[in-house]
Design goal:
Number of strands: 17
Number of domains: 4
CATH architecture of the largest domain: Alpha-Beta Barrel
Strand content: 5-15%
Distance between the termini: 59 Å
Radius of gyration: 27 Å
Helix content: 40-55%
Shape: globular
Length: 588
Amino acid sequence: MTQKYPSNQELAQTLGNVAAVYEIMGESFFKIRAYKNAADAVEQSNEEIKDIWEKGALQKVPGIGASIAQHIDEIFKTGKSRHIEMVLAKAPVTVYKLLELPGVGPKTAGRLAFELKLSNPKTLFADLKLAADNNLIAGLEGFGQKSQDEIIESIKRFKKTSKQEKRVLTSDALALADRFVEYMSSCHELSEIQALGSLRRQKTTVGDLDFAVVTDIPGKVVEHFTSWGEVQKILAAGENTARIIHVSGTQIDIKTTTKSMYGSMLQHFTGSKEHNVALREYAQKNNLSLSEKGIKDSKSKLTKFSSEKGFYNSLGMDFIPPEMRENRGEIELALAHKLPKLVDQKDIRGDLHIHSNFPIEPSHDLGKDSMASIIKQAEELGYKYIAFSEHNPQKGLSNEEKLRLIVKKKAVIDKLNTDIVVLNSLEVDILHDGTLPLDNKALIQLDLVIVSLHSSFRQNKEDMTKRILKGLSHPKAKVMGHPTARLIQQREGVDADWSKVFRFCAENGKALEINASGDRLDLPEDLVKEAKEYGVMFVLGTDAHEAAGLMKMPAAISVARRAWLESKDIINTWPVDKFKKWLYDEKS
């Protein structure tokens, strides 16, 4: 039987769990730190640890000492480490499930498991809920009502993330939608097609894919749809609608309509449900009823709409962009003609988060394409400035070696032949204690520093907040990249006191990134809206690792639009002079 080797993520979690048990048991600081450092090293490794082990180079990985290397060696040879299993057996298995909850650290997990006698992982959350209902958590020494509420809220967030696994990342859904639209557009009887629902509103994840189709011969369109080569199963094929299961497992529905009713169909099926309910309530007060066919007056006379703009205008309001339709006050603003002018692709003048293939010996993955090819793509997009923000050099290098690499990269940038302003930047890790892995001599060589979290995600709220603020405190640290460090459907965002972070950023000229990576979309829209209220500025970044990655910017724009951001809120919409003034202002 072939042995299954642990992935870097699995191995890092195991080592992190050992550190957690040592912390629960009150072991020495040095033991705890050794396993935390090893877990971080494994998680951050560009190469699979198994491959490094096969080359006999485990101890060459910064952060993995001789003793831990022996335990990893035993895991790869036999499938387990006797020492690690012995340590992990000292804590109930429920501790490790509790550690998956946002903001629950080792000491909290240990106390809950031991003092509430939580031993069954299958009923763990139900047992915690019952304990909270009886105020048993609040009754623990040092906890209180606030801690109890935070733990229950953390469980809700964890469950929500688990449920999202049944949905599809919007980036994946868009790729499928593009292929589908391309295929459907080859049908001569079809004149228009548009995505509906959460995909059109650009939510983080989507369920089924729904499309409105304009045609005068719906039967032909339905036949064309069900004949697609990527159909796994036809669920329904009626006169005006059809539904299939795509080979990926995603359900796709089409709804046909005539051009005269296209606008009202788009409005009705784009949603959201909450938006439409509020819209109907407003219409009813004016003796009107709304449907996918149009608007009826008190005498049941139907007015049809070929455009959504006409639909909204007939209700006395401005057209509401799909991304805003969540019943968060957009209807009232539309009636008052005070909707914000949402940011758009044409507003973007630069991209500050790009990884080239310059050999910086990074702590994480290196970009795939040259600076020249990336610049060519940026020029085609009409950008005025970009920043090459590779990951900082790995911590195994000396300060002198790191400085030499940064200076060498600057020299390469200075020789580039382009009219675009090109910045020498790095994405720098905020280490678990809030320090940065570069000294001041290296940092001052950079035009821009993006600080990001790439490890130690399970710190409690107080420690995580202190860590973030310390990382942002350096004058060169102008942007925090993917601030919550979430991976959609994989990892919850870190637990921090975001109000403190937002206040610090607003007061010190720091910007927060909205990262365009499909599994990040981070800062999430709810926190973007909150941060804007504090006066925080934002940067939209693609986190591109190849030239084509610059085309991901619309994903970040969608998050910004859902959070009602305008171009004035976003630094990389600014002209070069204004951008440089912010960039080199080191008041912080």
